[in-house]
Amino acid sequence: MISMQDDLTRERGPVAVGVSTNSSDTASPSGASALNAAAAPVRFDATEEESQRIAALAGSTKGWLRLSRLLVRQPKLAVHAARTALRGAGAGLRADHTLSWLIHVDTVRQVIPNGGMGATWGGLETFMGLVAKHVERTAHALELGCGGGRVTRHIRPLVGTLVANDVSDRILDEARVATSDLAPIDFRVTYGLGDDLRNQEFDAVIGHELLMQFDFDELLRFCSNINRSLKPGGLFIASVYTFDDAAEIEQHMGMIRDHGAGARSPFRVHRMPRRTYQDIFEASGFDVVEAQRSRAEEYQAKKTPHTNFVLRRRTA
Ligand SMILES: C[S@@+](CC[C@H](N)C(=O)[O-])C[C@H]1O[C@@H](n2cnc3c(N)ncnc32)[C@H](O)[C@@H]1O
User: Fold this and answer.
1) Distance 23 CA to ligand 1 centre (A)
2) Could you tell me which of 10, 41, 98, 303 has the fewest CB atoms within 10 Å of its CB?
3) How far apart are CA 18 and CA 36, in angstroms?
4) Does 101 contact ligand 1 (Cβ within 6 A)?
5) Ligand 1 atom 16: residue of nearest CA
6) Interhelix angle for 48-60 vs 4-12, to 10°?
């Protein structure tokens, strides 16, 4: 990124901060001349040529190599680096989908021996009502992120053929057991953000309690891949968490105040204004057919109701 200082440097050559280049500055104690003009032990400016060499060096060396070099030069940093590595490993374990959701299932089973993932979640009536209303009974459908099969059980009777995917093959085992009494389902392990989806395979893609796990840029990529996997005019039905008015924004700010600005749940739940989700969906090639908020009564525990979007792949 070229800064204003870079522009000045190109025009005048290196300019030491605090050294006046304009005689009128001397009359102005609040201008550049008010900065400390004494020769500093460290230089805070660079010529254009030096800037380019720094950028080239930073771009050409692997981060690991640069970190190792830094640690050799400043061995005291090793303790900080070790702590950071441990923290990173902890964050990685918490963010791992297979482990976090299987821990969740394990916790459920301590109370309900045959319980499945999401036994306490509820919140399906409005979502499934939209699936029933919009998806053709003969549709070839995909359920994204099927988890332990909680929603899969409701989707299966409503469509002709069903593919259900998840990033975790261990979680798909849970879903296989949970749906073993239903018509066949093609369970597939997926990876990334829908990069492996085939072009124009499905009439409908259905994803409940999935998109809230992703950042803005991840969503753009995921939704574009989902769009690509749909036949022209195909439907994407998805639930997200939104805040739609000042009270909800205040409630969300309260959570940030209480838990710290950087805090995230282990499941990386994101919540954005409805309009922002709509913009992401539209930028990914969808038109919004309908958006409906679930009702608070649908949930077993106190929870922010989902906003459920019905989206159609744009044809033109
Ligand atoms: C909160 S659970 C919801 C499961 C199910 N949809 C339900 O509502 O009961 C989210 C699921 O999405 C899966 N998942 C995470 N990232 C995914 C991705 N990129 N593609 C497909 N599934 C994913 C997780 O492994 C997990 O099983």
Assistant:
1) 65
2) 41
3) 5
4) yes
5) 167
6) 130
Parallel, antiparallel, or unpaired: how do β-strands 307-313 and 230-240 relate? antiparallel
- All domains of the chain in start order, with CATH: 1-60 (no CATH), 125-313 (3.40.50.150)
CB distance 145 to ligand 1 below 6 Å? yes
Q: Is the CB of residue 144 below 6 angstroms from any atom belonging to ligand 1?
A: yes
- Mean pLDDT, 10 residues at a time, the chain of 316 residues: 42 42 44 64 92 90 88 96 93 85 93 94 96 98 98 98 97 97 98 96 97 92 98 97 88 74 54 93 98 93 89 92
The span from the CA of 6 to the CA of 15, in Å, is 10
Nearest to 174 by CA among 117, 104, 112: 117
d(CA 132, CA 6): 59
